[in-house]
Each structure stands twice: as structure tokens, then as C-alpha cells.
Amino acid sequence: MRPSHDDSSAPYGKSGAAGNAGPGDGRPGMPVPAPQPDGSYSVYPYQGLGQGQPAPGRRTPRARAMLVSGALALLLGAAAVLLPAQYVVESPGPTFNTLGSAGDKDIIEIEGRTSYPADGELDLTTVYVSGGPSTNISIFQAVGGWLNPDDVVYPTEFLYAPGTTSDEVDEQNAAAMTSSQEAAVAAALTELEIPYTQELTVAAVVEGAAAEGLLQPGDTVLAVGDTRIDGIDTLRNALNDVGGSPTEVTVRRDGAEEVETVTPAPKDAGTYQLGIELATTFDFPFDVEIGQGMERVGGPSAGMMFALGIIDRLTPEQLTEGKHFAGTGTIDAAGNVGPIGGIRQKLIGASDAGAEFFLAPAANCAEVVGHVPEGLGVVRVSTLEEALDAVQKLAAGGSAADLPQCTS
After folding, report:
1. What is the pTM assigned to this prediction?
2. In this structure, how many other beta carbons lie within 10 angstroms of the beta carbon of residue 15?
3. Catalytic-labelled residue, pool 301, 323, 399, 408
4. Does CATH number 3.30.160.60 belong to domain 87-193+285-402?
5. CA atoms within a 13 Å half-sphere pointing along the CA-CB vector of 380
């Protein structure tokens, strides 16, 4: 972005260039400039050259075009600097020890049941996101992200639907965090064989599905045939047992029990479904508060590390034996570990925080291979049980190389 050069800025009548004559230049055939009231000279066209020169202070069409182009370039440059770039930059974020505190609050607080102090670290890892609906970045920040090997840059529409607002992003992240925390408690209690109950409520009925016109949003599923439903696994098993035969589904609707006859539809080989979306409500035997002091952290990816932290706090034995673990992964009530985003940035964040070992979801292994920071031992896990087993073996002095690895 350079200012344009004004070709008309050189003084006329001094250079002796063709078509210009200085005062009193007496060359044959050259017009003599006429003096102006302000002491300057105007130069008239020299017919022999076919083109004249403008008077001092007046710009040629070429000069005016260059001036306009320069101004436009400056405006475009300013716009590039000031207007937000349509990109999102993901960078390594901070880690949080689920066995520790954030601010003046324990990240995991348990009331109504004996809990135990825990040494060592079970870090959840995060990704710092710049750009998108929540924050604006400049084109220079986007370029900086491209040049930084620790960062990754995405077009905004790759991560967010058009029209998504920052409030919607915050609400979605908060809801995902709350859901992951409840699932983490359920998974931890399942692993420790501590009983709890859960209710499955119909959130939506899929159009054209088996339950359309029979079940309604807000219905709580109580039984399938003679089987009482106390969780998603019980429901799945009950539906698979009846196969494609009509069966009675008992629900609680507006405070009263209703019975509807539904014919489950086949989904995959040997599996059947009602065609409903479910929301789960848990009833735990004691209170577990998670995520204290982490108001700016959202999303579902901390579920597995929350579950490990809860297990450590509920057992008298030291799970980590003072060692430093980090990891990431979603969790469901059954203890299944799912994939997350930003795994490479989380590996870097864990390494920067001093972690010795990292628990990575098996579904993210393709992104892990070739991007493990030096000195960080990575173990592949698919379930909470596998993650717990890995922590126990590593805490006892085992090697990450002897445990499941990401190979592709």
C-alpha cells in the first residue's frame, strides 16, 4: 500500500522538456508561457508534439487515476486491518488439574459422601479459540496463526453455522459442559459400582419414526413391556429383545402413567429403535459439584478427566501416586470415551504444563500420530475403564510404550 506518485508535481517552465518552455526561452517554434496574476506561468499546447502539458497545480488524468488508486489501496488496507477476518484460530489453552482448585474453589466438590484428598495431577486440557461469533480477529492475526506451527486456522463457516451468534455459542458450550459433567458423575459411579437412577425423557420424536403420533416430547419412558427402564442401556436392550414386534411402552405424561403400543423399527442388524431423541436426568445418591472456578471453559471434552478425578476423590488409595497426567475425551454414562476437537493443541498445552502422560481418545488417533511433543507419553483409550487401568499402571511405574498406542 504505497501513496501514488503525482507526475504533475514537477514545476513546469524549468525542465526544458518537450512541450514546456521556461520564461523567455526563445527557442523557435516554442510558445512563450503567459504570466499569471500569481506569478506562475501557464503553458499552452505545442502543436508540433500533438499534446500539451497542464498548468502547475493541475493533475493529468493519469495522475488523478493513480491518486484515486492509491486512496483506494489505503482504504482497502485499512479495511483489512480493521474489519474482522472470517477465520478462527485455535491455540493451545491452559490446563486445569481436576484434583486441584481454580481460584479459591476445588474443581470437584463432593457433599454427602466421604471423599479423600488426592495428590498428583489429572489435567483437563483446553483450546483457546480466537475469532468466530464470540471474538473478532484481524487478517494479521489469521496470518500469524498460519505461521505458528502450534496453531490451526479454520474458515469461520467450517466451525459455525451462518448466522450463529456469540450468545448461542456460549449457551451451547455451557449446555455441553453441564451435560458432560453429569455424564462424568454417572460414569464414575458406574465404574465404582455405586447405584444411582436416571430417567429418560422424550426430547423430540423423529418425523416418520415408529413413535410418531404415539409418544410426545416431555414423556418420561418408564417401561418397555415388563422391563422397567432405568437408563439408556436398559432401553436399548429391551427394544432389541422385542425386535420388530409391537410392544407396550409405558410413559409418564403430565403426572399420569400412559401406555402406548409401539412397533420398534430396525436400525442395524439386530438393533431396533423407537425413533425418539432422549434427554437424561440423573438422580445421584450424593452431590457432586464440578467445574468450580472454570466459568470460561465450555464444551463436552473434559468428561473423561472429570470422571477420573471423581474416582480418585471417592477412593482412599492414591490413583496417580503423585504423577502428572493430562488428557481429553467426551464421556457418556456407560463410560464410553468419544472424540474431541483440537487434539494437537491439547497435546502441546499438556506438554507445556509439564504432563508426563496423555490419555487420548482412540477416535482421535489419526490426528495424534506425528504430533506428539517430545517427552510426552500418549496412551490410546476408548472407555473409562481403559483410562483408569492406564493411570494405575503408569502410576505404579509402568511405561506408556507398553500400553495401547496411537499408530494410525
Report:
1. 0.73
2. 10
3. 301
4. no
5. 15
